[in-house]
Design goal:
It is built from 1 helix and 14 strands; from the N terminus they run ββββαββββββββββ. By secondary structure, the protein is mainly beta. The chain folds into 2 domains: 55 residues, no CATH class; 129 residues, Jelly Rolls. Strands 5-6-13-8-11 form a 5-stranded antiparallel β-sheet.
């Protein structure tokens, strides 16, 4: 059962039934009927745009599915994880545009890749972390001191970075502007389960 707040703070209840954003409303008075397209995300990525249920006063959202071949970043909500350290939650955010993290209406469904954009504010410290999926970053603005394994370098616009599976990597924004980058995960040899693997930290953030 997935519990999602509507825009006036009420709780709506849904069964998660598949990974492509379909859910079943458990409010018997819901004007939208049993099945509809909604903005479903994993529990640690609750989106700003809630489910639709007019009988409880929620503001309806666009329920039309997006194109399978294109989308726009300005239509997606920024995401943060409640499991991240407080300082990181304040300085880092991302949008999932393609793949199993892009379950908002308008995201591109794709089972073998995940792609999005990330921002890390000036002074932001993204502690060393790793995950089962391999990852690429491409910096588009700002700069950061970037560490992958034992190598540390300065990443500026135009720099591409590769993180192998389970290799710790760290980003520290020591510049004077927000770091902006495109990130990309994929399923090696079709092993899509790695895309659902947990991000885990290998160090604590330094005290501020």
């Amino acid at each position: 059962m997935v519990r999602m707040p509507d825009r006036i703070g009420n709780l709506l209840y849904f069964d998660r039934v598949c990974c492509n954003g379909h859910a079943r409303c458990h409010d018997s008075n819901c004007d939208y009927g049993d099945w509809f397209k909604m903005n479903v995300a994993s529990l640690d990525r609750i989106p700003y745009s809630p489910a639709v249920c007019t009988t409880r006063g929620a503001i309806p959202m666009n329920t039309q599915p997006g194109s399978p071949v294109h989308t726009a970043a300005d239509q997606a909500e920024w995401q943060v994880s409640p499991h991240y350290p407080d300082d990181l939650r304040r300085t880092c955010r991302w949008k999932s545009l393609v793949g199993n993290g892009a379950k908002w209406v308008g995201g591109i469904p794709q089972k073998d890749v995940v792609m999005g954009i990330l921002e890390l504010d000036e002074g932001g410290y993204y502690p060393a972390h790793a995950h089962p999926a391999p990852e690429l970053y491409f910096v588009t603005a700002g700069e950061a001191e970037w560490t992958v394994g034992e190598e540390t370098f300065t990443a500026r616009p135009g720099v591409a970075i590769y993180h192998a599976a389970h290799i710790p990597h760290r980003m520290v924004n020591k510049g004077s502007e927000t770091l902006r980058a495109i990130w990309f995960w994929w399923a090696p040899d079709g092993r899509a389960e790695v895309l659902s693997g947990e991000v885990y930290f290998t160090e604590a953030a330094p005290p501020r």
